[in-house]
Design goal:
- The chain is an alpha/beta fold.
- The protein has one domain: SPOUT methyltransferase, trefoil knot domain (Alpha/beta knot), CATH 3.40.1280.
- 43% of the residues lie in helices and 21% in strands.
- It has a 5-stranded parallel β-sheet with strand order 2-1-4-3-5.
- Helix 1 runs parallel beside helix 5 and helix 3 crosses helix 5.
- It starts with a strand and ends in a 7-residue tail after the last helix.
């Protein structure tokens, strides 16, 4: 299974980079993981709705340029479906069984994902109605992917 995380925004914090390295190492026994960091657009203070839309579209085009036709795309979106860790494990397992061995998770920038990106997504996933920094969210996503593989393989993992 190939898992790709496409994320808008560069990771600067050392402690988050360490956490991502740790989960990447843990995941290496279950899947081939790749992480694509895309530059974000600077959002001016008091940006108009039109400016925000243009920023999302620019970031969205960068995201779409990193998605292949044969990839199953899961967009992380506040309007997506909330599922449990067990349900996420079932989804990853089912995708593999059905021949979808290339899964891409998308994390948008501070303004979210463009409509074009959301239209391309095969599934929209919401972790919580709360807002998280997208840099921290990368760690949370990798942890849940790791937890999914532990569940799939019947291996113990704290609840």
């Amino acid at each position: 299974m190939n898992i790709k995380v496409v994320s808008v925004g560069k990771l600067k914090e050392k402690y988050l980079k360490s956490a991502i390295q740790e989960y990447s190492k843990r995941l290496s026994r279950y899947c081939k993981l790749s992480i694509v960091e895309l530059s974000d657009e600077k959002t001016p203070d008091n940006a108009s709705e039109k400016e925000e839309l243009q920023i999302k579209q620019k970031e969205g085009q960068r995201i779409l340029n990193n998605i292949k036709d044969n990839e199953y795309v899961i967009a992380l979106d506040l309007k997506g479906k909330m599922i449990s860790s067990e349900e996420m494990a079932d989804m990853i397992s089912d995708l593999g069984v059905r021949g979808n061995s290339n899964i891409v998770f998308l994390i948008g920038g501070s303004l979210g994902l463009s409509d074009e990106v959301l239209k391309r997504a095969n599934y929209k996933l919401c972790f919580s109605k709360m807002t998280f920094p997208h840099q921290l969210f990368r760690v949370m996503l990798l942890e849940q992917i790791y937890r999914s593989y532990r569940i799939i393989n019947g291996e113990p993992y704290h609840k």
